[in-house]
Amino acid sequence: KSAAYKRFIAEANPDIVFSFAEADAFIYENYCSLKQNTHAKIVTFIADDTYGSYLENKTIRNRLQARRFHKMMHMSDLVYGASEMMCQAYQREFGRTVIPLYKGCSLGAVKKSNNNPLRIVYAGNLLWGRSDILGALAEALEKVNKEGITASLEIYTGSFVTPEMESKLN
After folding, report:
1. Phi and psi dihedrals of 46, rounded to 5?
2. Across residues 45-60, what is the average pLDDT?
3. Which of 58-62, 114-118, 141-145 has the lowest mean pLDDT?
4. Strand order in the sheet with 16-20
């Protein structure tokens, strides 16, 4: 909360601030500062089950993040979630409305052919059972590729990968 930060907030005087739901100290302190020093509405988007991941690991840091997250949910003026299931879970947990917000796009013409071998690329975290789904896909590809590689799966993630997950995904 340097003088430059306070000056920026005063000059910007935001009406709405959008943030992903992560309870690191920087974001939490911004929520507190914005609530104290502006009339800005805070809109929070829950893209992944970060709260659940804080609860899974009982370190002091994660317990602190779980407490911050709880406070941030109540400081938020509007909360969106990435799926209906996630919205329902967070509504039960925090006793507030969480609205589904989906991303999407319009697709152009369908390709007449595909790469050989076909590359399947996943970029994202491995929460909410995604590692299980990707593991099942990897297992199916292993069967499909017995007589030669026709498809591959590439996974790019910032998630912590346990040895068990790595074995399933490889």
Report:
1. -90, 100
2. 89
3. 114-118
4. 16-20, 41-46, 78-81, 99-100
126 is written with which tokens?
A: 């491995």
Q: How far apart are CA 41 and CA 17, in angstroms?
A: 6
Q: What percent of the chain has pLDDT over 90?
A: 52
Q: How far apart are CA 33 and CA 107, in angstroms?
A: 41
Within the chain, what is the greatest distance between any pair of CA atoms?
Answer: 65
CB 100 within 8 A of CB 47: no
Q: Taken in order 106, 109, 113, 115, is the CA torsion positive or negative?
A: negative
pLDDT of residue 1 exceeding 80: no
According to the model, what pLDDT value does residue 59 have? Answer: 92
What is the per-residue pLDDT across 7-32, written as a single tens digit (0 to 9) for each? 888 888 899 999 999 998 999 999 99
CB-facing half-sphere around the CA of 21: CA atoms within 13 A = 32
In this structure, what token pair is assigned to residue 70?
């709880």
With 0-12 / 13-18 / 19 or more C-beta atoms within 10 angstroms meaning exposed / middle / buried, residue 35 is: middle
**pLDDT beyond 90 at 57:** no
Distance CA 24, CA 21 (A): 9
Question: From residue 116, how far is each of 10, 26, 113, 147 by CA, in Å?
Answer: 55, 45, 9, 14
CB 169 within 8 A of CB 161: yes
